[in-house]
Design goal:
Radius of gyration: 19 Å
Number of strands: 12
Oligomer: single chain
Helix content: 25-40%
Strand order of the largest sheet: 7-8-9-6-5-4-3-2-1-10-11-12
Bound molecules: S-adenosylmethionine, iron/sulfur cluster
Length: 316
C-alpha cells in the first residue's frame, strides 16, 4: 500500500526480542534497559497472523532484527513460518551455530554488524570479547549459502582508523560493506559519528564508479564498486543525506507496536488489538490508517516528539 505521501510501503523490519548478547555503546545504554516480560513479547503465532495481514497490504520483504534476533529461542522455525522474503540483521555471535539451519528454513541473507577487526576495540565497543565468534559466524553464513553484507558504524576515535582495513576485509571475503552514520537514538551522547562525505573523501582511491541501481541493491544505501573488485561499498546516511522521500519501511517492535518512523512514536499497538480479540478487518484497517499517517521525514536534529525507545528496542 502507499502512505499519505505516496510512498510504497513494502519492507518490514521485525524485531523479535529486545534482548542482546552484546552491549554496543551506541545502541544500548550503559545501565542496560528494562527488558520486556516474556508475556509481552509477540508469540510466533501472533507474528504469523500479523505478517500475513501485512503481506496482504503489500509487504514483500521482512528483516528480522532485535536486540539480537539469534537470542530468541526458536527463531529458526520462525523463519519458516513467515510469508515474504526473509532476511536478518545480526551481530553474528551465534551465526556459526545457526547459519545452516537458517538457510534451510528459507532465510535469504544476513547483514552482519562488524565495526572493528581489532579485539580490544571490539571489547571496548561491545563490552564482550566475541570478535572471534563474529568472524566465525561470517564464514559460516557464507558457507551456508546466505547472502552476506557487513554493516559498520564509523565513530570518531573508536574505529575511524580501520575504515580502509574493513573495506579490504570485505573485499578479501567477497562481500559488500556498508557504512552507517551514527544516529542520535538514545544513548550515544559521548560518541561522535563520521559523516559519509568524510569517509568517501578518505576512501577516494578505493572507490570506483557508483552502482546505485544494480538490481539487487534496494533501500537507502548508495553503493560504489571497489576499484578492481566485485565487492561494493554502501553508505547509509540518515544524518547528512536524509532519504525519507524514498522510505518504504515500517517496523514492528517485539511487543507488537507498529512503528511507522524510526524517530517518532507514531504508529499503532497491534498487540493490544490482537489480544483484545480484534478481527482481521479491524487489524487491517488499523494498519492501513497508521501507514497513511506515516511521518513525512525524521528530524534527528530535534527531540520534539521523539520516541523514547532505544535502538536495541527498535532494531535499527
Ligand atoms: N543485534 C543486531 C545487530 O547488531 O546487527 C540487530 C539489531 S541492531 C539495533 C541493527 C543495526 O543498528 C546494527 O547494524 C547496528 O550497528 C545499528 N545501530 C544501532 N545503534 C545505532 C545508532 N545509534 N546509529 C546507527 N546505527 C545503529
Ligand atoms: Fe546488540 Fe545489535 Fe545493539 Fe549491538 S547493535 S547492542 S549487537 S542490538
Amino acid at each position: 500500500m502507499t502512505d499519505g505521501k505516496g510512498r510504497k510501503i513494502e519492507y518490514l523490519r521485525l524485531s523479535v526480542t529486545d534482548k542482546c548478547n552484546l552491549r554496543c555503546r551506541y545502541c544500548m545504554p550503559e545501565e542496560g534497559i528494562r527488558h520486556l516480560e516474556h508475556k509481552d513479547v509477540l508469540s510466533f503465532e501472533e507474528l504469523q497472523t500479523l505478517t500475513g495481514i501485512l503481506k496482504e497490504l503489500g509487504i514483500r520483504k521482512i528483516r528480522l532484527t532485535g536486540g539480537e534476533p539469534l537470542v530468541r529461542k526458536g527463531v529458526v522455525s520462525l523463519v519458516s513460518m513467515l510469508p515474504c522474503d526473509v532476511y536478518m540483521t545480526t551481530n553474528g555471535c551465534r551465526l556459526s551455530e545457526h547459519a545452516k539451519a537458517l538457510r534451510e528454513a528459507g532465510l535469504l541473507g544476513v547483514n552482519i554488524s562488524l565495526d572493528t577487526l581489532d579485539r580490544d576495540t571490539f571489547m571496548k565497543l561491545t563490552g564482550r570479547d566475541e570478535l572471534g565468534l563474529v568472524l566465525k559466524g561470517i564464514d559460516a553464513a557464507k558457507e551456508a549459502g546466505l547472502s552476506v553484507k557487513l554493516n559498520c558504524v564509523p565513530i570518531k576515535g573508536v574505529n575511524e582508523s580501520e575504515i580502509e582495513a574493513l573495506c579490504a576485509f570485505a573485499e578479501r571475503i567477497s562481500v559488500d560493506i556498508r557504512f552507517i552514520e551514527l544516529m542520535p537514538i538514545g544513548c550515544m551522547h559521548e560518541l561522535t559519528g563520521i559523516p559519509t562525505d568524510v569517509i568517501i573523501g578518505r576512501l577516494g582511491p578505493v572507490i570506483a564508479e557508483p552502482v546505485g541501481n544494480a538490481p539487487d541493491l534496494t533501500g537507502p544505501a548508495q553503493y560504489y564498486r571497489m576499484n578492481g573488485s566485485e565487492s561494493r561499498i554502501g553508505f547509509i546516511s540518515p544524518m547528512s543525506h536524509r532519504f525519507c522521500d524514498a522510505c518504504n519501511r515500517i517496523r514492528l517492535t517485539a511487543d507488537g507496536y507498529l512503528k511507522t518512523c524510526l524517530q517518532y512514536a507514531s504508529g499503532v499497538d497491534l498487540r493490544r488489538l490482537l489480544r483484545n480479540g480484534a478481527d482481521h478487518t479491524t487489524i487491517r484497517s488499523a494498519i492501513e490508517s497508521a501507514i497513511k499517517d506515516k511521518p513525512a521525514a525524521h528530524d534527528f536534529g530535534s527531540d520534539t516528539g521523539s520516541d523514547t525507545r532505544r535502538m536495541v528496542q527498535i532494531g535499527g
